[in-house]
Write a structure and sequence with these properties.
The chain has helices spanning 13-22, 26-36, 56-65, 78-81, 90-101, 107-110, 113-133, 139-156, 162-167, 169-177, 185-191, 193-212, 221-231, 237-268, 277-287, 319-322, 363-377; strands at residues 6-7, 40-44, 49-53, 70-71, 137-138, 294-298, 302-304, 307-309, 314-317, 383-385, 392-394, 398-400, 405-408. With 409 residues, it is an alpha+beta fold. Strands 2-3-9-6-4 form a 5-stranded mixed sheet. A hairpin with a 3-residue loop joins strand 11 and strand 12. Helix 8 packs antiparallel against helix 14 (237-268), helix 12 (193-212) packs across helix 13 (221-231) and helix 14 crosses helix 15. It is globular. The N and C termini lie far apart (58 Å).
Amino acid sequence: MTSHPLPVPELAAEAVEQWRTEEAELVDLLTRARHGVGGLAAFRLGPTPTVLVTDPAAVQHVLARHPDTYVKRSHRARMLVGNGVLSATGDAWKRQRRLLQSQFTGPGMRRYEQRIAAAARQAADRWEGYRRSGETFDLGEEMRRFALDTVWRALTGLPLDDRTDTELRSVERVVAEMPTLPGSVDEARRLVEADLARIDTVAHAAIAAARASSASQDPGLLRVLVDASDQYPEYTDELIRDELVTLLVAGHETTATTLTWLYLLLDRFPETHGADPAALVSETLRLYPPAWLLPRHAVRDDVVEGHHIAAGTDVLVCPFLTHRDPALWPDPERFDPARFSSGRLPVGAYIPFGLGARACLGTQFALRETAALLELLLPLGPLTLLDPPRGSSYSITVRPDGPTLARFR
């Protein structure tokens, strides 16, 4: 640590004003900051200073080495996920994460293998039907249905039925609307009130069913949460509801988006057909990480890579831009699964699931369900994408900006 830390290089105010005038996406401003200033870039959007972090060493410093200095704060997602592990902080977060962590590693994961396989077989059967008939289908919708079915089986022990599927589309609608909702929490909730009510109805019905089930039925993760209420009084039905919705959002939105992008990239880069499936997934996650932006807040003064970060600064770690740094990834916009065949990267250079104490709990689950589906789908042959979307929509995840209609060649 230097004895005379430097201020973080700042993006010119004129560039920020131009971004406001253009009414561009936040990612456009962050891209300008990274290109114009570097891996640590300061700018101001209001009274609170903001620092963008894309340099791998700085990413590691913020996320892995000093998580108590750079903390998560409440954000818009709280209206959907409440006090679930995604938005919880402090001791509450530590207890919630400890309980869930055992379910997504080692022996905990084994209980979900058959459920993942069953959901993958059901999706593959639908695709086999499309292949035989030549029918056009929506790629994104298929991936959404598979991922939601998988996480629903993990939570409840039951396959996703059509009625529940219809009601839980409310989750996707709320997530998609978040970037455009007003800053007032009350006003934002009012605009999505009907969707939140539908989500609550499904969640509380599932919790009641888990409470009524016997231990021998192994109804899934919901039963683990329900049983936790015997030992931890904070696990009320409301907190269990928040954890359930958190797992629905984190467990299906991200996986569905990754699988959709993978097929869009295969269509755009046909020479990659036949590449190792694990490398296809890794390269897709590089270009479209499930969490493209990781906001933090500095609660005390710190020095990062010789630069002073003042207490009160908003810090934006951006995997989306770190993964597009040409110094780390030559020709970064090219889809090249061979990148992952050899070589090692600096810690912090590849963080599709985050890093450190708050890295994604469900990483192994997501990778396993993705592999299980691709094992069945890729042998069916390549798809033709009909007028595929070329743009991206930035919310909690980065989505294709438009429908993804496809058919087998």
